[in-house]
Specification:
Elements (H helix, E strand, L loop, with lengths): L18 E5 L8 E4 L2 E10 L9 E8 L5 E7 L3 E5 L2 E11 L2 E5 L5 E6 L5 H13 L3 E9 L2 E10 L1
Antiparallel strand pairs: 1-6, 2-3, 3-4, 4-5, 7-8, 7-10, 8-9, 10-11
Length: 158
């Protein structure tokens, strides 16, 4: 083999994962966890006693952070599960064109890849009405997890 022969080496991004592993017994009420591939906020946890066949089990009741649907899962407390990395940020609305929004953060960065929210159904119309008034500055809170971004709330500032 000579130096002129090239090897094909694939490089992959060493970017951060969208989830982190965690033992089921370490998850707390009000925290986040993945259930059936969906990022959820934990509403309640009940722990069963250790039985003669093994581990104590954690029964989680949680709500999907994007759709609001209630989900349940049961995992032995010593087993692993995944926790989504959830970020929230505030953006000011610059323009609304159809359902597409143009947003800007405090640093002057623009975001054009978000649409008006579909959950709850009334929020999109409320944002549109507040925007058509023209006098108000409208700030939206954007929540992101596992590659999904969605507007979760808004507020008018005069």
């Amino acid at each position: 083999m000579s130096d002129s022969e090239d090897y094909h080496i694939e490089s992959t991004d060493a970017g951060a994962s969208a989830t982190i592993p965690m033992e089921a017994g370490q998850i707390k009420k009000g925290g986040y966890m993945m259930i059936k591939g969906k990022p959820c906020k934990v509403l309640s946890i009940s722990v069963s006693k250790t039985g003669k066949h093994g581990h104590a089990k954690c029964n989680f009741t949680a709500v999907d952070i994007f759709t609001g649907k209630k989900l349940e899962d049961m995992i032995p407390s010593s087993h692993g599960t995944t926790v989504p990395i959830v970020n929230k940020s505030d953006w000011e609305i610059i323009d609304i064109e159809g359902d597409a929004l143009t947003l800007m953060d405090e640093g002057g960065n623009q975001k054009t890849d978000l649409n008006l929210p579909t959950v709850p159904e009334t929020m999109a119309e409320e944002i549109r009405e507040a925007w058509s008034g023209g006098e108000n500055q409208i700030t939206v809170s954007v929540q992101s997890a596992v590659g999904i971004e969605q507007i979760i709330s808004y507020k008018k500032e005069s």
